[in-house]
Design brief:
The protein has about 160 residues and is an alpha+beta fold. Helices cover about 25% and strands about 40% of the residues. The strands form 2 sheets. A 5-stranded mixed beta barrel has the order 5-6-7-9-8. The chain has a 3-stranded antiparallel beta sheet with strand order 2-3-4, with no helix packed on it. Strand 2 and strand 3 form a beta hairpin. The chain starts with 7 loop residues before the first strand and ends in a 7-residue tail after the last helix.
Amino acid sequence: MDTLHLVHVKLLASDLLTLTPRHTSPASFVRCGRTVARAEVVGVVVSRDRREKFLRFLVDDGTGCVPCVLWLNHQYLNANSSSDSDPTGEMASKMSEVVRLGTLLRVRGRIVMYHGTIQIAARDVVLEEDPNVEVLHWLQCVHMAKECYDLPLPSA
């Protein structure tokens, strides 16, 4: 069994946006015959659209723009909860404040298909203060592709 689908795969936008969708539940995608369900990208925010229930933004890493969505409506999802506080919603709200035009972000989350377009449903959004992080991410993506992601599945 391939365990690559259990981790956040470091990908460049050009690789992420060319994944082949698999019609499974939950959604998964294929890269070189291997199943991928989660991804990590690093890039600059070039678009931001905040609504009541979500924040949609684009992250540009130099190879393309990755559409991302950060759900803010966890209070709706946890409507049956008797507690007045919603730590998940509060965390999402704090993460949304970090997403500003021109900021360098690391985004991790599930890869999903929405209206025929691949996007990341963000779980973590982290502000990166060191601009070298983007170049390091590129190098890690190339290294991981050569050493892991693009290799055939190990035989059982």
